[in-house]
């Protein structure tokens, strides 16, 4: 049977990453989860409310994007849990942690695209900001998760941005 620590009252975790590093990484992943959730919600909202000449294109594109984003939420939350920390899961927690603000009202289709570009880029910056800590802690699973998320956010931002070009 594993020893119990006084702090956690459960089995001691020894995965080769210090408790302090795991806590810092989990905190960073919690910010990524909050940004990802806000991005998911914004994209789904825009899917429901888009109108105008680009309706069909954007409606379908937003559905693909929010579906991908929804699936990513579980992956991020489960990595936080694997590091031994609770994943945030309330609007209140996400509001405190997120760098992405909710838009007011129903933007025009072009404004939706611009807001989503900014939100994709913000989420990419949040993910990228974790690499120094993850690298220092030798945390390859989190590095892999971050690399995959960056690829999605950068590609999606590029695709959305291309809709704004003349």
UniProtKB/TrEMBL annotation:
Pfam family for this entry, one: Ferritin
Stored PROSITE patterns: DPS_2
Location of the Ferritin/DPS domain: 27-165
Molecular functions per Gene Ontology: ferric iron binding; oxidoreductase activity, acting on metal ions
Domain of life, per lineage: Bacteria
InterPro entries assigned to the protein according to its UniProt record, in alphabetical order: DPS_DNA-bd, DPS_DNA-bd_CS, Ferritin-like, Ferritin-like_SF, Ferritin_DPS_dom
SUPFAM superfamilies, sorted: Ferritin-like
Similarity annotation: Belongs to the Dps family.
Protein's UniProt name: DNA starvation/stationary phase protection protein
Species the sequence originates in: Zoogloea ramigera
Organism placement in taxonomy: Bacteria, Pseudomonadati, Pseudomonadota, Betaproteobacteria, Rhodocyclales
Gene: dps
């Amino acid at each position: 049977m594993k020893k119990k620590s006084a702090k956690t009252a459960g089995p001691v975790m020894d995965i080769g990453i210090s408790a302090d590093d795991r806590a810092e990484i989990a905190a960073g992943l919690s910010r990524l989860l909050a940004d990802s959730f806000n991005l998911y919600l914004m994209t789904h909202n825009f899917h429901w409310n888009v109108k105008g000449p680009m309706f069909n294109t954007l409606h379908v594109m937003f559905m693909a994007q929010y579906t991908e984003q929804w699936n990513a939420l579980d992956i991020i939350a489960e990595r936080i849990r694997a590091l031994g920390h609770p994943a945030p899961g309330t609007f209140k927690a996400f509001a405190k942690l997120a760098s992405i603000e909710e838009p007011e009202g129903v933007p025009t289709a072009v404004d939706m695209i611009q807001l989503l570009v900014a939100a994709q880029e913000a989420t990419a910056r949040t993910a990228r900001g974790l690499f120094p800590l993850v690298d220092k802690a030798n945390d390859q699973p989190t590095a892999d998760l971050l690399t995959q998320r960056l690829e999605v956010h950068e590609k999606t931002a590029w695709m959305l941005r291309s809709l704004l070009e003349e």
